[in-house]
Amino acid sequence: MTAMTATQEAPTSAATVLREFEADLAVTAVSDAAEGVKTITLASPDRTALPPWSPGAHIDLVLGDDLTRQYSLCGDTSDGTTWRIGVLAAPDSRGGSVRVHELKAGDTVQVRGPRNHFPLVGAASYQFIAGGIGITPILAMIAEADAAGAPWNLLYGGRQRASMAFLDELERYSQDQVAITPQHERGHLNLAECLGDPRPGTLVYCCGPEGLLTAVEQRCASWPAGALHVERFAARPAEPDTEAEKPFELVLARSGRTLTVPAGKSVFNVVQEAGVSVLGSCHEGICGTCEQIVLNGDVDHRDSILTGDERARNETMMICVSRCRSGRLTLDL
Ligand code: FES
User: Using CB atoms within 10 A of its CB, is residue 55 exposed (0-12), middle (13-18) or buried (19+)?
Assistant: First the structure.
């Protein structure tokens, strides 16, 4: 792995598509953002420009064989030469965050992306809600909304103040807009007050643990369709469709191949085993790396990325988890 190499354009998607890069980047700085949270700053070894990104984008850190993790970019979008991520050490996880916390200035790490499945859509105003390390994508969104002069508010919760990252950076904004809610001091986030009355024209952006996302989804059920945008750290709890566990035929339109996807095996694995090159990362339906264009077939979407509208359009699918309800699925592969 040497210098930065541009690879092909990521698949066309209903979500924001950014040019996909893969590179060995240098760690230029590591600092403590809160208890258990470090920020890592990355740059190309020769300090050439990095691909542009927009708030909500994430990158893959390839930390070893079968160890790839996604982290939201949380730096300054106008800084064309460095990227910053904020990483919570989770010792009970599968080791990715611990490995990132071991990085030090001067190390290199393989990086892919950025890609954005959580883009900030233009709106009259914004309600941002962050739980814990979920502040990372929200931080860049706030900067963009504020620079655009859009009214916004932030509700930010965490276990305790000392473990909540970027509190110092939030001090530059009007404190009327920022509600910091450490659970040990003030209890849980007051979602009833924040989201009780739908506000037409306001978009809600939320990132945090599953319990928070579920609660926000319930509160926003009475809001206008499309008002809520969430990003998950982990796969959404699935409701298995036993019908869709049946085998189905998979047609690869560009390769001219017809394959069979058996029950219990992913489209991704079948395609890869057939020797067709596809990219994957999380294999849980949360990162978007494996997204492919659907030409035909009734997709059983099992990812945690696409919105209800995007699912209904049936234009793309995450082939690591999603399957087919009809007997035949055709992909632009
Ligand atoms: S590999 Fe991450 S969504 Fe499929």
Answer: buried
Which two structure tokens, joined as six digits, stand for 171? 């001090």
C-alpha 198/C-alpha 224 separation (Å) is: 7
- State the closest ligand 1 atom to the C-alpha of 290, by its place in the atom list counted from 1: 4
Whether 306 is in the pocket of ligand 1, judged by its Cβ within 6 Å, is no
Please state the atom number of ligand 1 nearest to the C-alpha of residue 282: 2
* Per-residue pLDDT, 66: 80
pLDDT digits (tens, 9 = 90+) for 182-191: 999 998 999 9
Q: 84 CA to middle of ligand 1, Å?
A: 22
Quick one: which atom of ligand 1 is closest to the CA of 287? 2
The set of residues, in sequence order, having a beta carbon less than 8 Å from that of 65 and lying 6+ positions away, is none
Name which of 73, 60, 67 is nearest 10 in CA terms.
60
The mean pLDDT of 199-221, rounded to a whole number, is 96
Contact 314, 294 (CB under 8 A): yes
Report how far residue 284's alpha carbon sits from residue 225's, in angstroms, rounded to the nearest whole number: 26
Give which of 167, 176, 92 is closest to 132, Cα–Cα.
167
Q: Measure the CA–CA gap between 196 and 145, rounded to whole angstroms.
A: 23
pLDDT bracket for residue 227 (50, 70, 90): very high
- Collapsing DSSP to helix, strand or coil, 21 comes out as strand
316 C-beta closer than 6 A to ligand 1: no
Q: How confident is the model at residue 148, as a pLDDT?
A: 96
